[in-house]
Write a structure and sequence with these properties.
heterodimer; A: alpha/beta; Rossmann fold; 35% helix; B: alpha/beta
Chain lengths: 130, 141
């Protein structure tokens, strides 16, 4: 049963960290669409969430950067309700801020190889969204 | 240091009242060579009691069915989220219900994923394998 989300939102200060994941998106048929939003861009965030209303919402958040407080606030906005959050963390110790560490959302190590990125997309395929 | 997923053994709690589905999961684990420890609870009330017992080490992951007698999976999930001991637990819903209200309720209570249990054994095994690969990527406190 394939239920790929219509769009994945990549929330990060630098899209470069997602390069392996983006490659995995592009290998799917049809390629999985994505939209990059910088955590500091409130308008872009609000727009992305509003436009995703009624679609399947997935947010991949690069937690290796120090934006945890801002993202916690973004996550609590009404537009973000029902979104699936997957937190991508760096490999260094303490790379993850405390609020995210205690959150029940899935936290995975930022995929560094195509196989891990593919596992992430496989998971999105079997997921049902709100 | 991050745990090495290749040697890490997780405790996974399966809360599922359907014996056939329990058997499916157990068989798939065996067939896939999954090393994680599977703790099966066919009674959601008992699962909740166990999770509230401070002497009981918490699992890293809970696989939770929805349609169960006494306390359904969504009720159990809400109770877990309302308790500081269990609020952070990573929960994946595994249900035959594609009901929109169920999915919304699950995501509002911060599930890590909502998976429809496929009817065929082959598809079930395929979904479970994808889920386990994803769980192997996951980091835990």
């Amino acid at each position: 049963m394939t239920t790929l989300p219509t769009e994945v939102i990549l929330l990060a200060p630098d899209i470069g960290t997602f390069s392996v994941v983006i490659s995995a998106f592009q290998l799917r048929q049809p390629p999985l669409k994505y939209r990059w939003v910088h955590p500091g861009e409130r308008n872009a965030w609000g727009e992305a969430m509003s436009q995703s209303n009624g679609k399947n919402k997935v947010v991949l958040w690069d937690a290796s950067a120090d934006w945890a407080e801002t993202v916690t606030e973004l996550k609590s906005m009404p537009e973000a309700l029902g979104a699936v959050w997957i937190c991508l963390i760096g490999t260094e110790e303490n790379s993850m801020s405390e609020p995210w560490w205690e959150s029940p959302i899935a936290k995975i190590t930022l995929p560094q190889n195509p196989q891990d990125a593919s596992c992430l997309v496989d998971f999105l395929e079997i997921c049902q969204f709100a | 240091m991050q745990p090495n997923p290749s040697i890490r053994i997780l405790d996974i709690m399966l809360v599922e009242d359907d014996e056939v589905d329990v058997m499916h999961v157990q068989r798939c684990f065996k067939k896939m060579g999954v090393k994680h420890r599977l703790h099966v609870f066919e009674d959601s009330t008992r699962a909740f009691q166990q999770l509230m017992d401070e002497a009981y080490p918490l699992p890293q992951v809970i696989l939770l069915d929805i349609n169960m007698p006494k306390m359904n999976g969504l009720e159990l999930l809400a109770r877990l989220r309302n308790n500081p001991r269990t609020a952070h637990l990573m929960v994946f819903m595994m249900s035959t219900s594609a009901n929109q209200a169920d999915r919304t309720a699950a995501y509002q209570n911060q599930v890590a994923g909502y998976i429809i249990k496929p009817l065929s054994a082959t598809d079930f095994a395929d979904s479970l394998q994808k889920l386990m690969r994803f769980i192997d990527l996951c980091a835990f406190p």
